[in-house]
Write a structure and sequence with these properties.
single chain, Metallo-beta-lactamase, Chain A, seven-stranded mixed beta sheet, five-stranded mixed beta sheet
């Protein structure tokens, strides 16, 4: 078994959307100013005994050309070259989109679901609570600010099959889906055991960055349930300690620079 990290570009947003209260004015710091933060967008391609599994689908290449609503484009600016398109990234690994038979979506937010339509042959594993929440949210109002975080165009895509997940389980030998709610009503992380390079945990948006991971853990800018959120971070820490695992936060710009990217594989 092996996996490759696919580079899908990056988002620029206010740092307070990443780390809650990162830049706020106080009596002791009345002139505090905010700053922009770059959030790398990644997917993970897993090859297991001739099968190809994709973890997340990244951002749609037309996001800044009207695919996203104007409010979303204003708050999260996508920077994505042609080479960072999901199909090109897969091609670097010698894989065509039609060969993907399983897609695991960490959750249903816009930077993880943008290319669902690329994989008509795949069964999609999604967090049950967030799937139900997102599908409901985009249909009870036409105001995108009331369902912020979700892209209706993504959620309207028909797929071969959705499997709704609300617990930990091993999807193939050596790859375990982790239930990590909090950032959203449901988030699916991955724990991958490699023969040569050990264990890796991808908590995706359950842990945005290394600073958020701590210890001590910090709140992200977008949290659905604060208690679940912190419990999920400590669950990741417990697993990492027990398996001597490398934790790869979902949007850590500095860490992302140090990772091997497609076409290189971790084995």
């Amino acid at each position: 078994m092996k996996f490759a990290i696919l580079d899908n570009g990056y988002l620029t947003t206010d740092i307070n959307n990443v780390i809650a209260g990162a830049r706020i004015r106080t009596r002791s710091n009345p002139n505090a100013t905010s700053e922009f933060y770059n959030l790398p967008v990644m997917c993970v391609l897993i090859e297991h005994e001739g099968r190809y599994i994709l973890y997340d689908t990244g951002c749609n290449m037309n996001s800044m050309k009207g695919y996203w609503n104007e409010e979303l484009q204003d708050m999260y600016v996508l920077h994505q070259s042609l080479e960072q398109n999901i199909e090109v990234q897969l091609a670097l690994c010698g894989v065509r989109k039609e060969q993907i038979d399983t897609v695991i979506l960490s959750h249903m937010h816009f930077d993880h679901t943008g290319n669902i339509a690329c994989f008509p042959n795949a069964t999609f594993y999604v967090p049950k609570a967030d799937f139900m929440h997102g599908q409901t949210a985009v249909r009870i109002t036409q105001n995108p600010m009331e369902y912020f975080g979700y892209c209706k165009k993504d959620l309207d895509v028909e797929v071969k099959k959705y499997v709704l997940v609300d617990e930990d389980f091993e999807i193939v030998p050596g790859v375990k889906i982790l239930h990590l709610p909090g950032h959203a009503p449901g988030v699916l992380g991955l724990m991958i055991h490699l023969q040569e390079e050990g264990t890796y945990i991808f908590p995706m948006d359950a842990v945005y960055t290394s600073e958020i991971y701590g210890p001590p853990a910090k709140a992200a800018g977008l949290v659905h349930n604060r208690d679940d959120y912190f419990r999920s971070i400590e669950k990741v820490r417990f697993l990492a300690d027990n398996y001597n695992a490398t934790v790869v936060p979902g949007h850590d710009a500095n860490l992302f620079k140090s990772l091997k990217k497609a076409p290189e594989f971790y084995r």
